[in-house]
């Protein structure tokens, strides 16, 4: 009898510890994920109570849909354009600020500060900087005799602005990660190379770079995943325009779901976003397990 | 700018070389190291300026008149400090209320996340039960879910619960932090089990052990998690913009966007828009100034994601 009582007590205790997290996790993550997959096989329009099962139609339709393909392409371009400079500049700052010196924490804080602030608010500031008539960017270009650019009226320049804002916000966080990785490199390795008389450049190429490569890879993947999920800056700066040239998959999902109420196509697009991030995350975990130097 | 810097670097390195030659017999007052140091500071200052420039531009823009913005677009400092812009901006939209709303939602979400992540992580690290591995895999799998995949059904769940357009709905739907579980599990695993065993023998309840023994040892980790959760939720835009419809319930990010796209503001009323942006950004910059040591070392030392 006692053991049954004990069992019950343990059971309730476990429930007490697990359920406060499990409840919202199931209600707002797991269940919605399963529902999304289900809805992506239907033609539900949100308003009507009925819907039809359409099988793979939403997915099949995507392959012929120029708007989807454009969004996929934009997502790829945007991610690469953000991630490569972010990781390179982040590493550069980390190398400069790795060792403590007078003012190093100050510079770290300054470089990190954009990450803290609301993307919506800072994007609004950048939209003024790149305003075609009274923006700072055009005024500065005017000083060196370059004619004004209508930044948000052309696909390439509009994308450039969003990329710039995104890098500006992400670079500090990337830097902090690199600093953490650089500090873990044993100083004995550097001392050995100093005895061997290596130049600073050789040291960087032959020691630092290989030793931080797992972190570099991790940061590349995580920054790509973040870039795929970027929304706020697009909403403020371009709304996917002009002519869909800055529309990413996530923005396309948003328009399908909450402007056109085409829930079937929207959730199918979301599932594609999921598949891309799931692939990248698995790659990250898989490589991370095999590629650790220290 | 880049060319200019390169020029400085080249000339300084030439100077440094010549210096080194006749420094070999005298006590150096300027060595290669000094020059390198100077170049480093110069370069970092230029980069730092670029990073904070939008904040300065925003702040000084909010103190100019619109006429001034349009007639002297290159002036950083205003001719007169028009503090009244802030009063007018606060009057044209309830930004104080928006900030209060954001604080409220972010604070309660953070408290919930700290509580339920601690409980969950404690169960994962200190209990043995059937399905523990499955439970951890479930959390791990949720980690890679992009929020967008859940938005449409989550919206319906909130509607079914009658929590659309409420702050409670926002708090509840953000209350599961997979990252929080990961992070605290990692930290809890490092705590030596002997203390916990001793408390168990003394007959302390598990909740008591968590509260009195485990949590006090993880204050730094809890603070980092709390700050990051708070900042993320204070800044969040996409999900609140879908859930909240009533103007008075807006968070700061959704409220400022409403103001930005409101009739007659965009492209014409930059001074008030910048005042609104300043109002949105400053509380976080202050929070960051107070807590930067914790946040920076929390990320740099532990390698936190998001």
Automatic annotation (TrEMBL), chain A:
GO terms for biological process: transmembrane transport. This is sn-glycerol-3-phosphate transport system permease protein UgpA. InterPro entries: ABC_transporter_permease, MetI-like, MetI-like_sf. It is a multi-pass membrane protein. Residues 72-284 form the ABC transmembrane type-1 domain. It is found in: Cell membrane. Keywords: Cell membrane, Membrane, Transmembrane, Transmembrane helix, Transport. CDD domains: TM_PBP2. The chain crosses the membrane at residues 12-39, 76-97, 109-129, 158-183, 204-225, 266-287. Pfam families: BPD_transp_1. Belongs to the binding-protein-dependent transport system permease family. It comes from Marinomonas spartinae. GO terms for cellular component: plasma membrane. Gene3D superfamilies: MetI-like. The keyword Glycoprotein does not apply.
UniProtKB/TrEMBL annotation, chain B:
The keyword Aminoacyl-tRNA synthetase does not apply. This is L-arabinose transport system permease protein AraQ. It is a multi-pass membrane protein. GO terms for biological process: transmembrane transport. SUPFAM superfamilies: MetI-like. Belongs to the binding-protein-dependent transport system permease family. The chain crosses the membrane at residues 40-60, 136-156, 168-188, 209-231, 270-290. GO terms for cellular component: plasma membrane. It comes from Marinomonas spartinae. It is found in: Cell membrane. Keywords: Cell membrane, Membrane, Transmembrane, Transmembrane helix, Transport. The keyword Transmembrane applies. The gene is araQ_3.
